Amino acid sequence: MNNTINRTDSIYANTGYGPHFDVLEIGLPDRVAVVEPDTAFWAIVERDALPDALSGKLVQDFRNQSEIFAKEMDHMRFGLTPSAVYFNPTERCNFNCTYCYLPEEMRRNGKNMTTQELEDALARLLSYFRGHLPEGMRPQVIFHGSEPMMVRDAMFAGIEKFNDDFVFGVQTNASLLDDEAISFLGEHQVGIGISLDGPKADLADLTRKNWNGTGSFSRVVKVMEKLSSYPAFNVIATVTKKNVQALPEMVDFFSDFGVGMVMFNPVRCTRQGGLDLKPDDLVLAKHFFDALDKTYELYEKTGKKLVVTNFANILAAIIGPTSRRLMCDISPCGGGRCFFALSAHGDLFPCSEFIGFPAFKGGNIYEDDIKDAIASPAFMKTTGRKVEDIEPCCSCAIRHFCGSPCPAEVHALHGTMKAPAPYCRFYEEQVRYAFRIIANGREDAYLWDGYKDETEESFCWAG
What we know:
Elements: E1 5-6, E2 11-12, E3 22-24, E4 31-36, E5 41-46, H1 50-55, H2 57-78, E6 84-87, H3 104-109, H4 115-130, E7 140-143, H5 152-162, E8 167-172, H6 179-187, E9 191-195, H7 201-207, H8 217-227, E10 233-239, H9 247-256, E11 261-266, H10 272-276, H11 281-302, E12 307-308, H12 309-319, E13 339-342, E14 347-349, E15 363-364, H13 370-374, H14 377-383, H15 399-402, H16 407-414, H17 424-439
């Protein structure tokens, strides 16, 4: 909504010199959100006071701070350098999940890294990160998959050797996590993320199953019991049309097992299996928000939080752009810019989602300089993807709260990066929901503990 802004010294119309505000309905009868899209500035405004807000103090206050807002957003989008790597030490997996974004042949017969190859790669990564990260800052290495526990001995040897140099994490289907492995990971303070897609075996095992068609729900539940008190533990549930209605039930289920953080991650449409399981955007929104409502009810009754991390990240990004932890919901996304991925062959990609797409290979860690790979045309296809270049995202009020992710699935679906996200409507409704949470003063219940310590208030408007 472009407005004529009355001021005492002049009148600014939509000439390109004044700020352009959009009014966003957020599902409340008495309040709306006002957003300045270029800077992600926003305010919750009483509906009856909207004309005064858009012609008075709100506009002037924004103009006084707009340069700061613009610099902050520009740095967030273009000023960061990689501090993490998704390390894929094997192409193989003992599972054949219906929606996996990696090719089946790769997962069935692909390469395993040797201990020497893995340690050599870690040494080269360490040299790269020490070249640009602040002294004393440890970069993150997340062993990712396929299934990293398939090369357990090599991975554990690398963790043992470089434990003082990196912050390690492991994302696993949990089927190979035995007591010895859990003990080792705990002793070395390795973050553990496991995957589980439902509160019951018949649902969880429907899409997550091994090559014989058998799931591991009971095994994963036993692992969850053992990890319930582990501080660096989280769960990812991939949301499909098969399990979307069970999201509220999952909240109670995960909470009963002491899980503190869960990601309800909509299935990626990078490959046909995922696309076939994509839930309708509005169906996803309904059950996703019902689940979030359930986490609030849980918090009110017990004081315990179950943080839905992908929603918490959107909420944090609205409250303060630099407080977000995940970098999928901004453009350019974090791929190749805040993190990158390493394949079992040593090939470098902007993100693990691109492994399996050779055109996005930027180099090889054993043969090329990592800096050259990050600056390569292959990486720049991702790091140069901006919502300003995408229709209709370029004119969207929430473009810096969404980012039109994920570039890999957009490319897979459309053959181009300049297309909107397949979950566009869901992301829109998610931002509306987040603004309702903020308007009702309930954000603390949805955000991780200590988030306020990670933010600094630069502007506060009461109107």
